[in-house]
Amino acid sequence: MQTTPDRPLEPSADLAIGAFTDVGPWVVDPARCAWLEGVSEERARLRRELPALLRPPRVPPLGPIVGAVGHVGRALIPWYLDDRRRGRERSRAGLSRRLRQAFERLGTTYIKLGQIVSSGEGLFPEELVSQFKLLRDQVPPEPFDAVRRVVEEDLGRSLEATFSSFDRVALASASIAQVHAATLLTGEDVVVKVQRPQVSRRVRRDIGALAWLAPHLVGRIPVAALANPPALVELFAETIVEELDFRLEAENMLDVARVLAVTNQRTMVVPRPHPTLVTKRVLVMERLSGFAYDDVDAMRAAGIDTHALVRAGLISFMEGAMLYGVFHGDLHGGNLFVMPDGRTALLDFGITGRLDESRRLAFLRLLVTGTAGDMRSQLGALRDLGAFPADTDLDAVIVDLGLDQPVIDPTTLTADQLTGELKELTKKLLGYGARMPKELMLFVKNMVFLDGAIARLAPDLDLLAEIVNVHLYFAQTHGERIVREAGLDPTLAGTVDIDYVKASMGLTADVQTLTYHDVRERRDVIKRRMEEARARSSRKASRSGRARRRAWSNLRRPGRRAR
Question: Strand 282-286 relative to strand 336-338: parallel, antiparallel, unpaired?
């Protein structure tokens, strides 16, 4: 593409097929991307391979299991002997740090598990989330000689035959790969993603160990049972196995860019994969730059509307999932940044959500009925996604869980009442065979991230009003299609049952506004009461233990006999 000082660059032709930067270093033409040949067949082959990969071995793989237990044990012992005795805050910080270091030593598979935890803000202790965030891009990198070897083997020529410069120091280093800044001989600035050597063999070995362990966790821990450990391992295996082939990731980039273009979400940008420099272990892509997603002060100083960023991210994410069954599956601060013009750049498409048509329609019904006040349809959609067995009596679930009763504000409950309610709810859900469907795990993880993004970028946003605005956007933009595909009553398609929405959030009908400050205050109240309940339980157990030790000591005194 040519330009002169008097004539600006013309928009790239590939904007018709994807949400890319206005003027790219090259034009993406899928018909000329040789690496796309056979990618769909490879994706299907990997999925066919999964059942055998996930089949628990008859003999437990002692090597990987012993290795994992050994590393975690070595992390727990010094914590038990030192940090644990130095107060609650020091104890949690020390344990989180030591666990992160143990996961680093265990390698790729466990680093990836740690990355999943790092996206669980609000679900896991903040010290653990903070430490495990370091596993996203601060994992020790491979030596440059190993990086050079992988690039040259996959491209079939020397580094110097492709790049005029290639930074020896990685921009970021994570579980599967690391990325380096480089410049092509033709002058384009690029980012090169390079897979770690031998990672494929290690991942398959560790999946075998996790597949053997997962069934033994079912029902052992209530939270683990609800999460469905075998399904979690299945999702983990599916995503990480696909991550091992960068051709699939490059196709994910094109598919997400296409959905953003079709829905006209041009405030989101996908970097262009190179037309020829993509292999199983090497991915060359357009280099973008901008503000870190949590650098709120710098963005506002540049005149960027951070409220609009959150809204665009939420809408584009939901549109991809609901209407096209394709969405970025691993949103976190390290995988996106904000460009100077206010657009959000999405990075790292190794984990991309893909729903087949039946699951997409169930997912569509789930999200639409979430604001319509139709509890039975919402439960039906969850059942169709696999959250409940196919023969579940939905009416019985509604009655048994008290979903037809007035909402109870959890902040009005005592610590004992709150823990009792949670235990009872968990017990009932397990009784119905409830579990978190693997298709929803990526979505929930992303929603947790977006929840945290609101806290940083738009803490004063009225969440109730925003829910109404988002619903109206979908009704006005996609209303006819949603009504048809979700089987809704057309007269109710644009309405929001705000009292139902409030009830689903544990709010009473008299609450008029809800900012993130309000949410944080409510969570702090609940957190405080849960900690009070745990502290009382711990003191009670400690007193009981001292009483048993005194009784045992008395029995052992000379002249005393048990009666």
Answer: unpaired
Max mean pLDDT range (43-57, 120-134, 176-190, 352-366): 176-190
End-to-end CA distance of the chain, in Å? 97
The two structure tokens encoding residue 554:
């008395």
Segment (H or E) for 292: strand 291-292
| Rounded Cα distance, 194 and 282, in Å | 5
181: enclosing H helix or E strand: strand 177-184
Whether residue 135 contacts residue 119, with contact meaning beta carbons closer than 8 Å, is answered with no
pLDDT the model gives residue 422: 61
Cα four-point dihedral sign 327, 438, 405, 373: positive
- Residue 328: per-residue pLDDT: 93
CA distances from 460 to 385, 418, 498 (A): 34, 28, 19
Q: How confident is the model at residue 303 (pLDDT cuts 50, 70, 90)?
A: very high
Please report the DSSP string for 260-279 in residue order. HHHTT-TTEE-PPEEEEEE-
Question: What number of other Cβ atoms are within 10 A of residue 198's Cβ?
Answer: 11
Residue, of 471 and 73, whose pLDDT is higher: 471
Considering only the C-alpha atoms of the chain, give the largest distance between any 2 of them, rounded to a whole number of Å: 107
Q: Residue 554 and residue 563: Cα distance in Å, rounded?
A: 12
CB atoms within 10 A of CB 245: 21
How do the domains of the chain map onto residue ranges?
47-140+199-243, 144-195, 289-387+437-505, 388-434+515-558
What 3-state DSSP class applies to 166?
strand
Q: Number of H helices and number of E strands within the chain?
A: 21, 12
Q: Does position 560 have pLDDT exceeding 60, yes or no?
A: no
In this structure, the strands spanning 268-269 and 291-292 are unpaired
Q: What gap in Å lies between CA 161 and CA 164, rounded to an integer?
A: 8
Residue 137: per-residue pLDDT: 61
Q: Is 310 exposed, middle or buried (0-12, 13-18, 19+ CB in 10 A)?
A: buried
pLDDT digits (tens, 9 = 90+) for 40-76: 999 999 889 888 888 887 777 777 777 777 777 777 7
pLDDT of residue 83: 63
**Could you report the per-residue pLDDT of 457-466, keeping only the tens digit for each?**
888 888 888 8
* Residue 159 clears pLDDT 80, i.e. is over it: yes
Q: Give the DSSP per-residue string, 495-527.
A: ---HHHHHHHTT--TT-----HHHHHHHHHHHH
Mode of pairing for the β-strands spanning 268-269 and 344-346? parallel
Nearest to 420 by CA among 431, 430, 410: 410
Mean pLDDT calculated for residue range 495-502: 74
CB atoms within 10 A of CB 392: 17
